[in-house]
TrEMBL record:
Gene3D superfamilies, sorted: 3.30.450.40, PPM-type phosphatase domain (3.60.40.10)
Pfam family, one: SpoIIE
Protein name, entry field: SpoIIE family protein phosphatase
Stored InterPro entries: Bact_Sigma-Reg, GAF, GAF-like_dom_sf, PPM-type-like_dom_sf, PPM-type_phosphatase-like_dom
Domain of life the protein comes from: Bacteria
Domain annotation PPM-type phosphatase: ranges: 370-587
Keywords on record: Hydrolase
Amino acid sequence: MTNINMKIKNLVDISSLVTESTNFFDIKDKIIEKMLEVVFPRKACVNLFYNSDYKHAYLVCSNSLDYIRETFKPDEAKGVKFDFYEDYPEYIHDAVEFKKIIYIKNVFEDERAVKERDLAKLEKYTGRVVFPLIYNKKVVGFMTCFLDEDDILKDEDIDFVSSIASLIALSIEITEKNSQKNFVIDKLRSSLELISEATRKLYQNKNIDEFLVHLSDIAKKTTKSQDSVILIDKNNCKNKIFRSYCKLDEKDFNMEDTVNLLLSKNVQGQYVNDREQSKDINLNVDTYIFYKLSNESESIGVILCTDGKKYEDDDLNILSILSKQVTVAMQLYDYSEKNVKHKLIAKELNILNKQQKLIMNDSKMECNNEKELEFYHRPATVVGGDFYYAHKIDDKRVAYIIADVMGHGIVANYMVAMIKGAFKTLCYQYKTPGEIATYLNKILYDEFDKMGVFATALINVFDTERNILSVSNAGHYSPIIIDENGQVVESLNCKKGIPIGVLPEGEYHSNTFSVENYPMIFMFTDGILEIKNNAKEEFGVDRLKRFVENNYKNNKNRIVENLKKEAEKFTGNDNFDDDILILMLKNI
């Protein structure tokens, strides 16, 4: 799984942990564990301040550490008590006082870290990054990440960890408010649930506009405002482009002037509950609340809500969480948006395509002296969910799968990797493709359901000794089977089941037949079928059947070349919107 995939999944998982728990101390170690799975530092800890007492810091989370964990063992629920000003270096004091992230790349060279050098040798770290935990404008603790000499934190990693720090702060707030029986808990948790769902949908639908509309609506509802807008300076240069979402763009105001006024304020966020004071942003509103969107150290836009009855610190905290989720989600998604709209991310596509190629086998596998498996895959501009994988179970059996995961990009690529891993394991546990498909669905259903996708597949087990093929069809197109006379065999169409990931208890059956007298078993995904000509007519199954009848005797290279020519002739060009994947069990 690529790091970008893991970041997305773990961000959603951590959001869910915070959403579902009322006690930070129950989930603190799990949050750190999931964060460290996707960023370079392999160690981190969390310290808290209780009751605004900044003289003492309590170490509450240190499971990823070695020396510190063994030496400073907590003897009470609130953690290990330290003298904040005596036991911690100056730069951590600065991070807390000025509410900013501080990155010390080498504690043995930076004079601000002199106090901790002995500890660094014992814990075996070289660099350290401090992330203050802030809610309601107050620092309630800090998280530090420890790096060895080979670790490098990129800007996007720091932004990602910062978003996790904001979720930790929210969890601490929920814990505190729960102990006080405060009604605001439901409001905070509800907003985070909505944010998590919106983030998940972003990666399913690949629609950044819909995502921002959704988040703007969340801001409006959770702050009980009449209107809300997200203003984004996407170019960050003289020719600024602002994109508004919601009803505010219908009002008579200059969007650029408004956002410049908000960005010029020397606070990250603010609310105003007085009509006269609200005039300072040139809007005809009674009240307003805003929070800046920040990328690294610069502001790239704002979230603005107006005409709420009365804004409070809790509303500002919600917008703070929302702003970080907007920034991080857009960064993680940015490569896909640019790919579709501007085609400027060949490097990222190359990484995903390489991953997909690693998931697939070499293009040829000799099954026995008579039959061989060969495939051809032409990925679309956007990395899709089409894949093939074959595995020799033993000397007498080969299991292989051809599948199409709904959608493109990171979610599809992530699910492809999940299917391959589960398929490879199940091949050894179950003998028939029907059983493999049934348990593949059971194992992966929750993951498919969480991501909101499904997959169609043909799962096959080939008895190489007897030339017997068993096929289980999970909502996929039936294979095109050619007999000795070069005719399509219509009577062997494999009974179709439901796609994988649709129902938790789906059952799949096996279709078994001899391939002794069938020189070609041709399988495919829908990419080739759905290419269209100028009249918007699809290539379709019938044309593909005729093509296979005319080409089954050719070798793989000739078949592929002829298929390319046929597709280009049909469409009038060589650019296709979807993957093209074909798989052939054919005579040698």
